Amino acid sequence: QVQLVESGGGLAQPGESLTLSCVAPLNMFSMFAMGWYRQAPGKQRELVADINRGGEMNYADSVKGRFTISRDNAKKTVYLQMHSLKPEDTAVYFCNAAMKSSDQRTLYQYWGQGTQVTVSS
């Protein structure tokens, strides 16, 4: 089973920035859509941002203009730059890789173990 590895979480004060990284040791990394999800205590996991293999990005309304997702296919890594952090951004952030088979019948999906981001003064 492939394990994605996140890093970069930690404690930040409101208004500060953090950058998360996720290394995905996948043979066909460039073919995967990559995403960042987060889960706050007592809440469901939600999509924060994703980027498809063509480089198109999608963001949750709550982070638009503050977060930027990017990918480096050569390094098999996806990043999440987080600026102007707010206390409500506090959550465990998970990296996700997803790709459908050519016949669209099978979804290949992998997750990281999560990295904690805490925004507090």
What does this structure look like?
The mean pLDDT is 96. Strands 2, 4, 5, 6, 9, 10 and 11 form a seven-stranded mixed β-sheet that branches. The protein has a four-stranded antiparallel β-sheet with strand order 1-3-8-7, with no helix packed on it. The chain is mainly β and 121 residues long. A hairpin with a 6-residue loop joins β4 and β5. It is built from no helices and eleven strands.
Oligomer: single chain
The N- and C-terminal alpha carbons lie at a distance of 39 Å
Based on secondary structure, the structural category is: mainly beta
Q: Count of helical segments?
A: 0
Give a quick set of tags describing it:
0% helix, single chain, 121 residues
List the helices and strands and how they pair.
Layout: E1 5-7, E2 10-12, E3 18-23, E4 33-39, E5 46-51, E6 57-59, E7 67-72, E8 77-82, E9 91-100, E10 107-111, E11 115-119
Parallel strand pairs: 2-11
Antiparallel strand pairs: 1-3, 3-8, 4-5, 4-9, 5-6, 7-8, 9-10, 9-11
Brief account:
The protein is an all-beta fold. It is built from no helices and eleven strands.
